[in-house]
RNA sequence: GGGAGCGUAGCUCAGCUGGUAGAGCAAGUGACUCUUAAUCACUGGGUCCAGGGUUCGAAUCCCUGCGCUCCUACCA
């Protein structure tokens, strides 16, 4: 890697340019975006553009280049008649990948290509490395993730996808601000991990000589703000979970958590039904989105279906499902499994609750293609939410499911400190230290009834951009180090 | 964690049952004043992922390691 023929040639051409009076790494160059130049094209007007050379078509006395500045591509024409001799000679020293600034006159070729006839130009950055092949670009997935800058400079779809991601973040903020929510930041560096059941990353704080963890969720701090009277808050930031990496999991990922005091689960449903169409309208331009390899159409027009967990199970497994004993349910589940060809994992399943959950996960959730709120879950699944008022065996939450996957949960939050402590203790088992005493004491000051919501932003971006891998929507996904 | 596949020129990829490595693009030189994946001619370019083994001989077969991809399992 230290030396190769391409690098040597480019170093030589760099020296040649220097000898001709150019600075191979130039300075500030005021210019307009290519997208703007294209939109405001007026034949014969003088314009200044800057960007990277993607293609060079040399024809001797008239040469064509394709330049990319991140907002689009534009053709530059270097013509012997139109350039001072030194600038025409120096053009021969340019290579693919070099970044230049050019001033010239807008011109449309006979084939109708909008172009800039260059009258003056300068080099702004010499590229010593060879860019990937012009037609296929960088195709190797590993290289695209490891060297995202090369992927971005050559693959327009990649760049477009991250523009979209950025717009989704901005419009999410705008939407929540417009509804009176305040954006806040809470600690990422924590002394104990809470708000979720996940293994944290450990680190060490030298000044205090204390072990710390990176947060697995902002939840417990955001609720402290509700106690303090910040009634409508959201945080958009990173969580870290020390678990596996696969197509839908990156160890650091972006979450949006939203809390609304004096609200409940249904307030959060309203936010989802407002936010998602807002993102579709402002960022994507359509409420119907092709999803996954099948390209199935997901329709984000509201209202979304709301259905109780048990009703959903009955739809698939029969009206009598919850009246059957465990043995009879097992029989029925096996029959259904055989009939649908879906394998149920029944090894550790010892009661009706677990069996029903397995049936839901494998046979039911995957078939919920259009946006659906699954509500009223058994309380055992969600220990930190509040029970339904009419049925203490159920919790007042939803799982928002799209395309057969859970996109986000929403809760009527537990604000009873006594119940919260019980739930913590059950969750923590013997490990008493895991109970967050300061959080309990915050609840003991009184937290208003509250609705809460947590969205995996990466997965939201995947859904809206039609990607089926988290690495495609994270600029620098975690990879093992190569050598 | 289990299964399958992949790793060859800067990039995209061929390379059959083992016989000393090939194309296109890119690069260098030359021709060409409307090209646009420009075209034409000539030229250069390789630790075939790493290490070991089998063999007279390995990119090719076997083993180990590293990395990636897909499937599957797990995961608030």
If you average the pLDDT, what whole number results?
91
Shape: elongated
Our measurement of the CA-to-CA distance between the termini, rounded to an integer number of angstroms, reads 14 Å
Number of strands: 19
Strand content: 25-35%
Q: What's the CATH topology label of the largest domain?
A: BirA Bifunctional Protein, domain 2
**What class would the helix/strand composition place it in?**
alpha+beta
Which class of the largest domain in CATH terms? Alpha Beta
Cα radius of gyration in angstroms: 29 Å
CATH-scheme architecture of the largest domain: 2-Layer Sandwich
Q: Find the CATH superfamily of the largest domain.
A: Bira Bifunctional Protein, Domain 2
Question: Describe the biggest sheet?
Answer: 9 strands, mixed
Number of individual domains:
2
Low-confidence parts lasting 5 or more residues at pLDDT below 50? Answer: none
Oligomer: single chain
Total helical elements: 14
Short structural summary:
The protein is an alpha+beta fold and 483 residues long.
